[in-house]
Amino acid sequence: MAQTALIIVDLQNDYFDGGKFPLVGTEEAAANAAKLLENFRNKGDLVVHVQHVSTESDAGFFAPGTDGAEINPAVAPNSGEAIVVKHGINAFQGTDLKALLDGKNIEDVVIAGAMSHMCVDAVTRAASDHGYRATVVHDAVATRDLEFGGKTVPAADVHAAFMSALAFGYAAVVSTEDYLGNA
Known about the structure:
With 183 residues, the chain is of the alpha/beta class. It contains 5 helices and 8 strands. The chain has a single domain, classed as Isochorismatase-like (Rossmann fold, 3-Layer(aba) Sandwich), CATH 3.40.50. Helix 3 (116-129) packs parallel to helix 4. Residues 4-176 form the Isochorismatase-like domain.
């Protein structure tokens, strides 16, 4: 039977209301990620928390040693759960994530977190490139409005565009309810 891991990406305090870089729908995404987390814990499956800590001296968010860089209590790690600290967008780059997954014979990864258009996109594509079967739980992922060419692209459109791109060739993209109903 294939081994599965849950990867929760960057659900850190700065992305929530009152943080330095709040996203649209972070609370809802975290609530759904918490449901996935409970399911994985109950099954005894591997849980990996990814935490972005900036190395830039003028970091606007996720600055080292700040409350904003801490993983939000909604999905806080339990003792013994893996925490992969990254300093860039892709959670595989410059970290031991691949070694951790391979060491546990993981073949499938389930991904939740933030942001749709950055770190979730990057880890999903990298997971696929490394040969893992990836599932993104779309309502356990948050993002924000973006701007391009003088036009504001609403977060919901950013999210839909990235989820549809991932579904096209990199991952199964499902809701929390559908994932838990089939888990």
